[in-house]
């Protein structure tokens, strides 16, 4: 199998800031490293964390939750998450990576 195109679709509703991240995929091991570097312009100083979900055909394949950054509207996360992709995915099938920033107080999604 050769190179597979990546399509990035961002759904922004009630935009509440920006998120800087890095993605790396290893075809040999079927893993994706997602590094969440930092966020900016969050609404007010909040206790926040990142949550990642990897889905395939509507089912969650893998997921991770980061550590809480306290009282900051521009938190530096600098966390790398290693996600495992199913090795049986055929060309043309879609994998969705959902990354959200949430507040620690009530789990509210900030929709970045």
What would you give as the CATH superfamily? Answer: C2 domain
Global geometry: elongated
- Overall CATH class: Mainly Beta
* Annotated CATH topology: Immunoglobulin-like
End-to-end CA span: 33 Å
Number of helices in the DSSP assignment: 0
Instruction: Estimate the helix proportion, in percent.
Output: under 10%
Q: What is the number of beta strands?
A: 7
CATH level-two architecture: Sandwich
Strand content: over 45%
The mean pLDDT is 79
Structural class: mainly beta
Could you list the spans in which at least 5 consecutive residues all have pLDDT below 50? none
Summarize the main sheet: 4 strands, antiparallel
Helix and strand sequence: EEEEEEE
Q: Please, how many domains?
A: 1
Radius of gyration: 15 Å
Structure description:
The mean pLDDT is 79. This protein has one domain: C2 domain (Immunoglobulin-like), CATH 2.60.40. The termini are far apart. A hairpin with a 4-residue loop joins strand 1 (18-26) and strand 2 (31-40). The chain has 112 residues and is mainly beta. It is 0% helix and 53% strand. The strands form two sheets. Strands 3, 4, 5 and 7 form a four-stranded antiparallel sheet that branches. It is built from no helices and seven strands.
